Structures are given as C-alpha cells and as structure tokens.
Amino acid sequence: MKYKQLEAIMRRVASQCPDYHYFIEQHALAAAGIAGENEVFYFLQELAMPHQILRNFCLIDFAAHKHEMDFLIIFSSFILCLEVKNIAGQLNFDVEASQLLRTRADGVIERFPNPVAQLTRHIRFLSSLFPHIPIVGAVVIANRRAIIGSRRNTHIPIFHADYLHSFIESSLKQYTKPVLQINTFYEQLLARQAPVIKSFSFTLADLKKGVFCEKCSSKMHFVQDRFICSNCHHQDKFAHFQALADFRLLVDSKITNQKFRTLCEISSRYAAKRLLKYLPIIKQGRTTYYEIPEQIVTIAPHSPN
C-alpha cells in the first residue's frame, strides 16, 4: 500500500507541497525495497518443495503493534521469516548497538536501523502465536554489490539472496517433522492479516487535476468518448481509471460525480456519468457515490481506440 500511495503522490501531489521532498525520498527508498524483494522472490520461485509464500505480510500483536514482514515462507516442518535489505557498500552489523553501518565506496559511513533486531522481534512474536511450530529467520541482502562485513553479537543468519536455496535446504534437513498442513495454515494466516491502513492521506484540493497520458505523462483532454493527449496525441477511452485509482489511494474509496469532474477536469455531468458507468453505485441519503474498486485499472479493456 505505501509504495502504491507514493507512486500516486509522485503523479498527483504538486512539488510546492511542503513535504514533497520527503515523499521523493520515501519513494526512492520504497522503490529500492521493492527491487530487493523482487530479487529474493526470483530465487523463491525456483523452490521445488511444497510451500506457500506470504509477501509484505502484516500482523498485529497483543499490544496493537504492527509486525510487517517482508516474506513468510510456510513449509510443513517450519516457517521461514525473511527480512530483506537492498543496500550497497560494506555492511557491518552490531546487535548490541542496534545498528547497521554501511560504508560507501567514497568512504562515507551511514547508520541504518539494524534489521537483525527487527527480525528478532518478528520471530519472538510468531513463536508466541505458534509455540509448536519452529520459526526460522534470516536477513537477506538483495544488493549484489553489497559486501557483508562484521556481524557482532548476532545469532541470526545474514547472507546474499543467491544463498537462499542452500539455507532452505539446510533448514529442511534440520526440521524434518511435519507439524502443519501448508495450505490450511496459509489460509489461517491470511485470515489474521492486519487491515491495510493508508500511510498518507490527502484531500481532493491537494491533488493535481486532470487525466495524464500513460505514454508521456502530459495532460489529456476529454473529447467526445475518449481522452486525447495534448503532447503525443495518444488516445485512450479508459485513461480516467488511473486518476480514479490515485484518488482511491490518496483520498477515498468512493467518489461523487462532482468530485470526479473536478479531479478529471470534465465539464459535463452526463459525460462523467457515462465514464463512471463501470463502477458500483452507493446511495447515502440523497448523495450518490461511485465505489472505486481496488483493481480499477484492470476492470475494462485498456483500448486506445
């Protein structure tokens, strides 16, 4: 959710926003995190033994604290919890000082929160929930240019993504007794997943108005039954779906005809009604809302004609 929101912010929030540079930094960090997770997922897809994968999985503990885990891999004999870091440079881990020190190529040293401490917290929580299931944890370094240096006072394995298969094979040899049904337990975990909460919230007034071209990002104009780019002349009947998706991520999951016209800069309420015909209608008193599905960009053919 956070990464999708940040992508929407890059499209919709003006650079004059006081927090815009913060959002740029957060977007870059989130993009690096997603790239690192994709690298790890590439290796996980090659697993031949029965398993289930939960990615970006969140549970709430008894004190209402969130546990956001990069990967949970369920095997019949144990659960593997992975914390992924996509950081280049020489990485030195110090659990006692609760820090990860990264030495860049130019010699500059930077401090990051120690992923070992975060992973240990997740393992402790999972073990309290499922005391009969072995919980195994590891920190996976996804950046191929990283050099793993010192690992002071840590019992948690730390390795590069290409060692993941070997680590899993070793763990399967250590934990051989089946203790759970993989698919049943997977469904049980999904049922316990914490509800998604928006990381950032905006009003319609905060957003850039208009529909933007997927080809060149320029503003499009609505002409009869389609949107036409003023720059590259790309035509699209469903370009407003991305605007609706952005509105859902940043403002609300439902929208009125009037707010839709403001968002997409459409003058005719009747034209707006035709464009919104794919969306479910919600009546609240005298007000008609259109519910924006989570997968709004995929609910109709994306045709340029």
Automatic annotation (TrEMBL):
Top-level taxonomy: Bacteria, Bacillati, Bacillota, Bacilli, Bacillales
Per its UniProt record, what InterPro entries does this chain match?
NERD (IPR011528)
All residue ranges annotated as the NERD domain in the record? 32-149
Q: Which Pfam families match?
A: NERD
Instruction: Write down the PROSITE patterns for this protein, in alphabetical order.
Output: NERD
Superkingdom per UniProt: Bacteria
Q: What is this protein called?
A: Nuclease-related domain-containing protein
